[in-house]
Amino acid sequence: MLILIAKVWSWTMRCGFLIALVLGTGVLYVRLLDDDTIGKYQIDTKVGAALYLQYNCQTCHGTEGLNPPVDGYPHLAGQPASYLINQMLDIKYKRRNNGMTTIMWPTINQVNDSEIRQIGQYLARIQ
């Protein structure tokens, strides 16, 4: 029995190292995506700021995504751009429909994918 426990522990430690390595690589990849260029899209945070206001995002998420006026609305500022962009795209294309995402559908459907990337990059730069 003790030998079995030792083998399981050894396997767990090896897998834990591999999992940490994979997760670390994933974090590095996400950080690399948060450059000023994502794919073919050049990012201009001034444009993202204007779009954030144009689409009235501050109504639910607060000025610069920092202080949502309603409990339960997420703080957006400072999140990785790739995360923000993916969340907005998932909501727009209804791959995500939990929480209050249905409230966002009328607005997010007016925003094109390039503008979503601009907004996400803008919010990611806010500290």
Number of helices: 6
The strands making up the biggest β-sheet line up spatially as 1-2
How would you name the CATH homologous superfamily?
A: Cytochrome c-like domain
Low-pLDDT residue intervals, each spanning 5 or more residues: none
Account of the 3D structure:
By secondary structure, the chain is mostly helical. It has a single domain (34-125), classed as Cytochrome Bc1 Complex, Chain D, domain 2 (Orthogonal Bundle). Helices cover 62% and strands 3% of the residues. It has 6 helices and 2 strands; from the N terminus they run H-E-E-H-H-H-H-H. The chain has helices spanning 2-33, 45-54, 58-61, 81-92, 101-108, 113-125, and strands at residues 37-38, 41-42. Strands 1-2 form a two-stranded antiparallel ribbon. It is elongated and about 65 Å long. The relative contact order is 0.15. The model has no long low-confidence stretch (mean pLDDT 82).
Descriptive keywords:
2 strands; mainly alpha; Cytochrome Bc1 Complex, Chain D, domain 2
Short description:
With 127 residues, this protein is mainly α.
How are the elements arranged and paired?
Layout: H1 2-33, E1 37-38, E2 41-42, H2 45-54, H3 58-61, H4 81-92, H5 101-108, H6 113-125
Antiparallel strand pairs: 1-2
